[in-house]
Design a protein that fits this description.
Length: 76
């Protein structure tokens, strides 16, 4: 499968996890399939270290959708 899909295997896996997370969310699961696909297509995959700050105090985090694929977020 890796030979056919190349490096895209991880991207495809992450997109499937994003779709699953949106389907499980009580607000986002009300979106149409087309809306969900557009959101996923516009999301970017980022890697963070355990000590990295994702949101700073006072930032507009309510305007972002964050799907944690591995690990967890911690409020400090």
């Amino acid at each position: 499968m890796t030979k056919v899909l190349g490096d895209q295997v991880q991207v495809i896996t992450f997109k499937n996890i994003q779709k699953w997370a949106i389907d499980k969310d009580e607000v986002l699961n009300k979106l149409t399939k087309i809306q969900i696909e557009k959101i996923i297509d516009n999301m970017k995959i980022s890697n963070y270290k355990a000590s990295d700050v994702i949101f700073t105090k006072g930032s507009a985090c309510a305007q972002k959708i964050v799907i944690v694929i591995e690990g967890s977020l911690k409020k400090v």
